[in-house]
Amino acid sequence: MQRILVTGGAGFIGCNFVHFIMVHTRLHVTVLDKLTYAGTIDSLSGLPSGRFEFVQGDICDAALVDSLTPTVDAVVHFAAESHNDNSLEDPRPFLDTNLGGTFTLIEAARKHGTRFHHISTDEVYGDLALEDPDRFTESSAYRPTSPYSATKAGSDLLVRAWVRSFGLQATISNCSNNYGPYQHVEKFIPRQITNILDGVRPRLYGQGRNVRDWIHVADHSSAVLKILEAGRIGETYLIGADGERSNREVVEMLLEIAGKSRDAYDLVHDRPGHDLRYAIDSSKLRRELGWMPGYRDFDAGLSDTMQWYRDNEDWWRPQKAATESKYAGQGH
Ligand code: NAD
Ligand code: DAU
Questions:
Q1: Within a 13 Å sphere around the CA of 157, how many CA atoms are in the beta-carbon half?
Q2: 3-183+214-239 sits in which CATH class?
């Protein structure tokens, strides 16, 4: 494998993956990204021009996708509408990009016989009770609950059907909540970090009891590379780093890191249909491919992430006011 196409490479996880690939492989990367509100070319600055190319475009554009696909050995598909709160306000772009865009990409990959890796989420499995000893595995039932997770579930099923019906050379990964640099300020951790930096109290939905299973974005990248190189075609791999924390715990940790009182946050009205808990059992990936997460200390990971936002205000500041005004309209 020498050349890959990375869709959504100007977004949070996609850009971290591209930076990771540049350091850890000799692969040439073409990024295809529409540059929606969630993507910025600034996240890809400083990459070696001889190994990197950027194409601004829509994954729903069949002619464009069909022209790019035969130029690469594999497609790694990150592009999506990714934010649950947005999907509750306006589901349409989620159907277009997450379902229509994935359909366009797998049609091109099947036509050209191109290796395909589909990036998905643990949210396709719905949620777990707080006290449930079980975690999601590759055989958990699909029970998506939001417009976002329903479209991601649908996209997974499209890929599975194309593997079975057309022999698409595809793998799928479903990962838990990522944190780290370059994450849009609409998401939980960067929203709270940048609020704290602005002297604004963090906002917890409901009672802050909901649990997410946090993984550093660099560990997501290393897992995707392993699957791309050694994953069995047609298989799904769950990616997680045993990072379960309640939202309240995370906010308390961030406040402490910033030297503020641990209770200096506000409770705001809950997200409709808010999933209670996600938890990943990633033993298949660890056993079959020998993958292990590198970031084991969540406290240190949060500290580094807060420092990144301190050091990179130019990157996030342009998005902050519009994001907060959207949240104000939602009562969040
Ligand atoms: P993001 O919203 O930060 O970035 C999405 C990127 O896709 C942006 O650069 C955007 O411009 C681009 N894009 C959107 N629509 C497009 C279109 N029609 N054509 C081309 N480009 C388009 O998202 P993220 O958090 O980096 O998530 C990336 C992928 O990982 C998604 O598939 C998401 O479902 C999945 N995922 C995310 C998480 C998480 O914690 N954020 C966890 C598991 C899985
Ligand atoms: O589990 C993987 C998923 O994680 C990905 O598929 C999604 O793309 C990604 O956005 C994320 O979804 P969540 O809905 O879990 O992430 P979000 O950052 O929106 O919220 C995390 C938790 O924090 C959730 O329980 C809602 C809560 N929250 C969020 C915000 C923005 C708050 O309590 N306050 C907030 O201000």
A1: 13
A2: alpha beta
Q: How many CA atoms lie within 13 A of 262 on its CB side?
A: 7
Cα 4 → chain centroid: 19
Convert the pLDDT of each residue in 117-167 to its tens digit.
999 999 999 999 999 999 999 999 999 999 999 999 999 999 999 999 999
pLDDT at 116 over 90: yes
Tokens of 176: 């838990």
H/E run at residue 151 = helix 147-166
DSSP-derived secondary structure for 61-83: -HHHHHHHGGG-SEEEE------
Catalytic residue (choose from 123, 156, 186, 213): 123
Please tell me the distance between residue 11's alpha carbon and the centre of ligand 1 in angstroms: 6
Q: Closest Cα to atom 15, ligand 1: which residue?
A: 80
Q: Is 122 in the pocket of ligand 2 (CB under 6 A)?
A: yes
Active site residue 127: no
Mark whether 266 is an active-site residue: no
Domain boundaries, the chain: 3-183+214-239
How confident is the model over 75-94, as a mean pLDDT?
Answer: 98
**pLDDT of 171-205, one tens digit each?**
999 999 999 999 999 999 999 999 999 999 999 99
* Atom 41, ligand 1: residue with shortest CA distance: 178
Closest CA to 176 of 281, 287, 308: 281
pTM: 0.99
Q: Which entry of 58, 122, 252, 275 is annotated as an active-site residue?
A: 122
| Atom nearest to 16 CA in ligand 1 | 26
Mutational pocket test of ligand 2: of 98, 149, 177, 189, the residue with most ligand atoms within 8 Å of the beta carbon: 177
